[in-house]
Amino acid sequence: MTTPAKDLEFDYSKYGFRDEERYVYKSQKGLSPEVVKQISHMKGEPEWMLKRRLKALEIFQKKPLPLQGMWANPSLANLNFDEIYYYIRPDEKKSRSWDDVPESIRQTFEKLGIPEAERKFLAGVGAQYESEVVYHSLREEWEKLGVIFLDTDTGLKEYPELFKEYFGTVVPAADNKFAALNTAVWSGGSFIYVPKGVKVDIPLQAYFRINAENMGQFERTLIIVEEGAEVHYIEGCLPEGELVSLGDEMVPIESVAPGTLALNSDGYLAPVVSARRRSYRGDLVRIVPLSPGNAFELTPEHPVWALRRGRVARPRADRPATQWDIADARFTDAEPEWVPAGELEPGDLICFPVAVRSLDHPEISDDLLRFLGYYLAEGSAFRNGVSNAPTVSISLDSRDSTTIADVRALMTRLAGKPAGVYEVPAKHEARVYVYSAELLEIAQQYCGVGSATKRLHPHLMELPPERQRLLLETYLTGDGSRHTRSNGRTLVRAATVSRTLAFQLQEILARLGIYAGILVRKAGSESMPDGRVVRRCEQYVLHYEDGATVRRVRFDARRNCFWVPVRAVARRPYEGWVYNLEMASAPNAYLARGFAVHNCTAPIYSTNSLHSAVVEIIVKKGAKCRYTTIQNWANNIYNLVTKRAVAYEEATMEWIDGNIGSRLTMKYPSVYLMGRGARGEVLSVAYAGRGQHQDAGAKMIHAAPDTTSRITNKSVSKDGGRTTYRGLAKVQPGATNAKINVVCDALILDEQSASDTIPFIEVEEHDATLAHEATVGKIGEDQLFYLMSRGLSEAEALSMIVLGFMEPFTRELPMEYAVELNRLIHLEMEGSVG
Predict the structure, then answer these.
(1) Which pLDDT score is estimated for 113?
(2) Which residue from 376, 430, 451, 650 lies 20 to 30 Å from 206 (Cα-Cα)?
(3) What is the β-pairing status of strands 589-592 and 595-598?
(4) pLDDT of residue 769
(5) Which pLDDT band, with edges at 50, 70 and 90, does 315 fall under?
(6) What's 793's DSSP letter?
(7) Which has the closest alpha carbon to 634: 216, 15, 8, 73?
């Protein structure tokens, strides 16, 4: 069956982004001994490493491209090694704190769609940008146990003997042309050492990023797992109910759907590309700004747009540290940064953007705006319980004759009939009313019904600020209070039981150049002097000083935002769903209760880039290592990787390998089973869309008795994409009782796509068991019919089938990664990307 292309179109260009190139050093194009010497010199390497690099360069130059033969691909002929930059240094130093990573690079990693909250649950994290690792960190508890998790360059410097003992022993430079290339120009990667008997029960993780055009990335990873040790290495939000701003209102983040317009950190409305949900267990950080009503919660690693207090403040001896005053000169020169929520401190300033929009609605007259302000403050619109007459009423202080006259005149003009006044002397209350179905409908349409649910219509929220001022002034006249302080400043307050209205009025005031705080009065009971008990709903109190400069809140005209101090930072345990939004345009950020928070992919270029990594793993007696990769390189990148492990007696090595992106991937993770009872497994999936070839598989070399291996390969191709399983299962002499199981399943979704299975089997021992199963199929019409008969669309049915097909892979991932991968595959199938 041929599936209609309109249901399955997938455009990776929506999913990529790039940053402006800012580098400390960028080599010339092309490869030469001088380039290699410069790389080694800039890294301060020992002489033996330089010699090894130069020897590898000679091997690389002598070896031909693998265009023919067992492990060849004709597409490699398109690679031009002379057009590649082999070394780019984005920064002078590596950082152990995200705060110390250059802001532009840190912002790049915050954009990535890797589940950001995983940082909370990782034993260590590394991040590589172009040629260099820019951040590396290991939890203290693992350091105390002797675990080493460093970038490879630092590993060479700090553990030279250990490094020299193992480097190049699993993947020598002469192994293949790209291993030689990597050995000559390697930079970055991870160096991991797990001592005997230590079980690292939470993953170590690294992220790799290519940003520059025509860039080559050549990280080198070396992992040593001593006897009986275990490690899991992975290459590489807001809680339910938290509010985000859509401009005209704030809504729970879980209710935001793709396509919704939301305010970004520049104050503009931008479409939400995708809304992500995943499970989370850990701390939530509660950020309480100077306005407690805007307090918001998020996971500790979620970035917040901030100015660190130490960069903008001057301490005053008579005040606590949290009340530092801002130094004007320092504030002007300071550059904000994306700071993980867990690193914010009291006194830091966070960004409250001013909404940028102005659309007049001539049908909303000035009289109507002034009336609606009064109505929001003290109005009601209802049908009289006795006569069922449509009634609009506004309650005022009977002693305020000026306001009564103003309201009465407004309602008379708008209703086209005289408005009356009904006085309640015991309460000093005057009710201005009019019977008008038209005015009742207008009041309810623009401001809602009931004090707790009053809100401003979207048209009111997008009016020019000077017109919004008309509504605001009458609202404050009806529901506000003014108090002159001893310093001569006037404190303005207004209370409402509508949370939505409070946030809307705060936004309007910001557009008028005023930052208003929000206090929250909790619901409760209050005893009055006359003995009555008054039950009070939760109230939101807006407050600001009229015409005064708030000392610790600053307006930033250049960025059109207010910088508001953090009053307090707290944590609480949480287990449940957390959410994140992907915005369609830069900056990829949205607003949590008015404040800017940030939100996996590689940048898209028209020319090609090269990723050629080498991974060497040594798993000693009784040890276990799992290495998980989910690569989503852009479609211009050649992903040519050599990954190899040796497993000794009773050791276990597992490769969990996912391939979604790149133009061409050639990757065959291998395990050399060198000791009795060693076990190896490769579980891989590949997805090839338009213009992609996923050439992936595995190699299992049985070199000892009683060894077992399993290869499971799943692939999906569509829109002319091509997948290839290319694998080797080899039993060497003496490897008696070896057991091998190979399963290859391919799913082809249209007539233009293709899948190949190219297994190589070499058995040199009589006492061995080998099973090989390969299937290539298409989705049956009966499967689609069955699912669609139960209410699913064709795209939904296809997604469900593909996700079920991938399930053996996704169930082996940490939950957060499984959710992300399933979401990505589902969106690919339905034709949109988040």
Answers:
(1) 36
(2) 650
(3) antiparallel
(4) 93
(5) low
(6) -
(7) 15
- pLDDT of residue 532 exceeding 60, the answer is yes
Note the residue count of the chain: 834
- Mean of per-residue pLDDT scores for the chain: 81
**Crossing angle (nearest 10°) for helices 366-378 and 465-479:** 40
pLDDT given at position 185: 92
User: What's the one-letter identity of residue 709?
Assistant: S
Ranges 223-227, 432-436, 448-452, 817-821: which has the least confidence: 817-821
Encode pLDDT of 345-359 as tens digits.
998 999 999 998 888
CA-to-CA distance for 657 and 686, rounded, in angstroms?
9
Average pLDDT for 214-218: 62
Spatial separation of the C-alpha atoms in residues 699 and 71, rounded to whole Å: 11
Which residues lie closer than 8 Å to 680 by C-beta, 6 or more apart? 645, 647, 652, 653, 654, 671, 673, 700, 707, 708, 709, 710
Give residues with Cβ within 8 angstroms of 719, minimum separation 6: 5, 8, 9, 10, 689, 690, 750, 752, 753
512 contacts 453 by C-beta, under 8 angstroms = no
Looking at residue 783, its amino acid is Q
Give the other-Cβ count within 10 Å of 319's Cβ: 10
- Inform me whether the pLDDT recorded for 592 exceeds 50: yes
CA distance 603 to 600: 10
CB contact at 8 A, 607 and 634: no
Peptide bond before residue 587 is cis, with ω within 30 degrees of 0: yes
Q: Where are the alpha helices (DSSP H) in 512-651?
A: none
Tens of pLDDT, residue by residue over 259-287, are 788 898 888 888 886 676 666 778 899 99
Q: Are 43 and 111 in contact (CB under 8 A)?
A: no
Q: How many Cα atoms within 13 Å fall on the side-chain side of residue 57? A: 21
Write out the E strands in 608-737.
Answer: 609-611, 614-619, 624-631, 637-647, 652-659, 664-667, 670-673, 679-688, 693-702, 708-717, 722-731
Residue 62 CB-half CA count within 13 A: 10
Q: Above 80 in pLDDT, residue 41?
A: yes
User: Considering the entire predicted model, what is its pTM?
Assistant: 0.53
| Dist. CA 221–CA 235, nearest whole Å | 11
Task: Mark out the alpha helices in 350-400 (DSSP H runs).
Answer: 366-378
Residue 782, Cβ neighbours under 10 Å: how many? 9
What is the Cα–Cα distance from 497 to 453, expressed in whole angstroms? 8
